Amino acid sequence: MTTALIILIGTIVTYVIYRASKVVYKKWPLPFFHPLLLCPLILIAIIQLSSLQPSDYALSSSLWTHMLGPATVAFAIPIYKHAPLLRKNITIILTSIAAGTLVAIGSSLLLSLVLHFNGDLLISILPRSITTPIAIEVSKTIGGLPTLTTVFVIVTGVIGGIIGPYVIRLMALKSPVARGLALGMGAHGVGTNKAMEYGEQEGTFSTIGMIMAAGMTLVWAGLLIPSLLQITIL
Amino acid sequence: MVRKTITILSQLALIHVFYFAGVGLAHILSLPVPGSIVGLVLLLLSLFAGIVKLEWIEKAGGWLLAELLLFFVPSAVGILNYKEILNWQGLETLLLILVSTFIVMAATGFTAERLYRRKRKGEHHS
């Protein structure tokens, strides 16, 4: 088979199963049926039952992975549309995301130590709550394994997309700014996708939260994480 | 239907121009930021400067953001390459991510909600 044909088939199959997963989740909104859990599980089952290699599937679905880039660019649209709203809430945004990024790194580090994780695993898990491309950069900076970090980022997204609504209810988060920032900080793009279901304002705050979280984590990776690791690992 | 598809595809092409410009710029200047984020900044600046009109990209942009989960699917399937984490430590890792994500969301949301209420109160008094 030619590469073009492989990509055509992979693109269509992935899309059809994704659409079907969305329909299922809409009808039965159970955590287990979350599209980012159900759709990959079906695809994994297909790959395991056939003679396909995971690398064959990665190639065949590369068009969709590529779209993450342009999708990130498209986040400029909600930011542009709601610029005045963001300017008005800039203090809340900066303070909350500073708290969020520090809690993300701190809690990952502490829990890793409690569970006796060490070396590559511990370092690679620290940037897990930010968007994939920047998490990879941070992982490289602090000496982790970028591929392992990618796995943790995806797992964080899936878990965050599922528990986000429960956190919002449990913490009685009523304002769009609190809901959006919590989702964007805790579960990057997947959380932002959820936030857009709440409303356009929530989606915008989530987008900005996601971007700020990535930016601040880059800064912490340079200033804070190296000394933190030195204190805790040595 | 055909016209709608052509609109979305041409808008998608325009967004790609910004994406590739961002990737190129990040590469040339060896920025520590991914090209897609540079592309986001370039598009945002162009929108504010009036070089690009919102209508030129809004439809394709809306589609990209609405289908975001689809673009994560291949990476999620890629977990297959890490069969070795499907053990006890994998379960512990899952638990760590669950607890940590919960704490992060709660802390961020709590901070924002508190500050929002205080700010609204302040506005009422003044």
From TrEMBL, chain A:
TM ranges: 6-25, 32-51, 63-80, 92-117, 148-168, 208-229
Bilayer topology annotation: Multi-pass membrane protein
Localization, UniProt: Cell membrane
Pfam families reported for this sequence: LrgB
Highest rank taxon of the organism: Bacteria
Name of the protein in question: TIGR00659 family protein
InterPro entries from the UniProt entry: CidB/LrgB
PANTHER family xref list: HOLIN-LIKE PROTEIN CIDB (PTHR30249:SF17), PUTATIVE SEROTONIN TRANSPORTER (PTHR30249)
Species assigned in the record: Terribacillus aidingensis
Any one cellular-component term (Gene Ontology): plasma membrane
Automatic annotation (TrEMBL), chain B:
Swiss-Prot/TrEMBL keywords: Cell membrane, Membrane, Transmembrane, Transmembrane helix
Membrane topology reported for the UniProt record: Multi-pass membrane protein
Bilayer-crossing regions: 12-31, 37-56, 63-82, 94-112
One Gene Ontology cellular component annotation held by this UniProt entry: plasma membrane
Domain of life assignment: Bacteria
Tagged with keyword Transmembrane helix: yes
Pfam families, alphabetized: LrgA
Keyword Transmembrane helix part of the UniProt annotation: yes
Localisation per UniProt entry: Cell membrane
Primary location group: membrane
Name of this protein: Holin-like protein
Organism from which the protein derives: Terribacillus aidingensis
